[in-house]
Amino acid sequence: MKSLTFAVLCLASTTVLADVYKCIETDPNTGERKVTYTNDRRVKGCERLSADLPVSSVPSGNVPKAAAPSSAFPKVSDELQKQRDADRRKILEDELAAEQKALESARKALAEQEDVRYGNEKNYQKKLDRLKPYQDKVEQHERNVEALKKEIADL
C-alpha cells in the first residue's frame, strides 16, 4: 500500500505545473525598473506567462561561440616562458626551504612540550589538549611541504 501511494505521489509531482508570473516594478525614487518572476498569483501587477514559454535562466543551445583568439592577443616567446618557469621554480624552492625550516621548528616545539608534564595535568586529556595546537602546527607545515613538493614536481 505504501509503495502504491508513493508511486501515485511521484506521478502527480511530475504532472503538476505551477503558473509563473512576470512582475515589473518601478522604483519610485530612482525610476529603475526591476523584473521578478514568481509563482504567487496573489502579487498584483504581474503578468501570467504562457506555459509554452521557457522560464529558465540557463541559456539555450544557440549561444554564440567564443571568438577565436585574435592575432593581437599578446604571446610570450619560448625563451621568456622558460625564464618565467625558472623564476617560478626558484620561488617555490625558496618557499619549500622556508616551510621545511618552519616544520622542523614546529616539531622541536612539540617535542619540548611532550616532555613537560605540569602538576595540574593529572588527567592525561589536559596534556593532550595542551599539545593539540602544537600538533596542528606540525600537521599544517607537513601539508604545506607536501603541496609545495607536488607543485614543483608538476613544473
Automatic annotation (TrEMBL):
Asked if Signal is a keyword of the record, the answer is yes
| Signal peptide segment | 1-18
Q: Where, if anywhere, are coiled coils annotated?
A: 89-151
Region of interest: Disordered: 54-86
Regions of compositional bias (Basic and acidic residues) in chain numbering: 76-86
Compositionally biased, Low complexity: which spans? Answer: 63-75
Which terms are listed as keywords in the entry? Coiled coil, Signal
Report what the protein is called. Answer: DUF4124 domain-containing protein
Native species of this protein?
Nitrogeniibacter mangrovi
Q: What's the source species' lineage?
A: Bacteria, Pseudomonadati, Pseudomonadota, Betaproteobacteria, Rhodocyclales
